[in-house]
Amino acid sequence: MRDFIHSFVREADGAWRCIEPAEVSLATGRIQVSPGSRFVRGTRFMGVDLAQLLDDELSRDKAGDRRHDQRRPAQ
After folding, report:
1. b/e string for 2-40 if b means 16 or more Cβ within 10 A?
2. Which residues, including other chains, have CB under 8 Å from residue 35's CB and lie 6 or more apart?
3. What's this model's pTM, rounded to 2 decimal places?
4. What is the tens place of the pLDDT at every residue in 3-49?
5. Which of 22, 33, 44, 47 could anchor a disulfide with 7, C-beta 3.0 to 4.6 Å?
6. Considering the domain boundaries, does residue 37 fall inside one?
7. Phi, psi values for residue 55, rounded to 5°
8. What is the pLDDT of residue 60?
9. Quick check: is 72 in a domain?
10. 50, part of any domain
11. How many domains does the chain have?
12. Are 8 and 17 spatial neighbours (Cβ–Cβ below 8 Å)?
């Protein structure tokens, strides 16, 4: 999933735009996205709300960064 999110940019209005070919395998099957495709929350692509999926992954990445920062030794 990490590589998948790096194929997208989040635009100012919250939409996600694909900037390079992307592929992800989910329990529901494999999804391939072409550059230029744009996704907003609430819209399903191949049965999946990709914008929600990408928002969730972004939140997990940010939470992981905070946990990593908390483990660093004090300077």
Report:
1. eebbebbeeeeeebbebeeebebeeeeeebebeeeeebe
2. 18, 19, 20, 21
3. 0.78
4. 899 999 999 999 999 999 999 999 989 999 999 999 999 999 999 99
5. 22
6. yes
7. -60, -45
8. 85
9. no
10. yes
11. 1
12. yes
